[in-house]
Amino acid sequence: MNKIVEKERFSEHVVKLVVEAPLIAAARRAGHFVIVRTGDKGERIPLTIADADVKRGTITLVIQAIGDSTKAICALEPGDSLTDVVGPLGKATHIDRFGTVVCCGGGVGVAPLLPIIRAMKEAGNKVVSVLAARTKDLIILEEQVRQYSDEVIIMTDDGSYGRKGLVTDGVESVIKREKVDQVVTIGPAIMMKFVSLLTKKYDVPTVASLNTIMVDGTGMCGACRVTVAGKTKFVCVDGPEFNAHDVDFDEMMMRLRSYSV
Question: What is the pLDDT of residues 4-20, one digit of tens each?
């Protein structure tokens, strides 16, 4: 059992939980995820670790309430416990001193992007973060992102905050004004697809995290199959991050649609 020590509600459907998990906090790296379960018959939910505090022995998770299982997790309060938290899982993000790194996240994709932003900055990179959402109320973790970014660009579909436009508009504005050495993108599949198409046009190396398609988290269910450079990969064991220019996003989106109800 893993006790919840803090809870913050970002919006009606998005919640941040700080959970006791000392061994995971000590071992986790940027890009790692955990499998969470609440209740003896609860569904296994893969969640990327948004932050960790080794001294407190805690990890931070951001959950979007979509189905019954995620709604049950979001309904928990400080003092309650998650039945299982297993991890860290997946392959850690490749962190290096690239130069100028643009990190772009859409919606709740900003949560798994945050530790990457931090690690890229600590490695000596100039970090420009582009946060995007449909409206101002859906922008999350802005204050934390600003701590580790040289610049933050906010894009909203309706223009209610920052600049009006899509995440690609923000990314392209940076590419046009200076040399960008690496792009990292996390968010909805359609967003990552168009970021990838944009950066491919400008020949900028790009990494995409495909965590949204994960289900089981161990490679056994096969639900997270994706085609990367013409080969079948499993996001939870081979990723979750891949060269974005090699990912067949159309196939990925078709598989995601098969899970919708």
Answer: 999 999 888 889 999 99
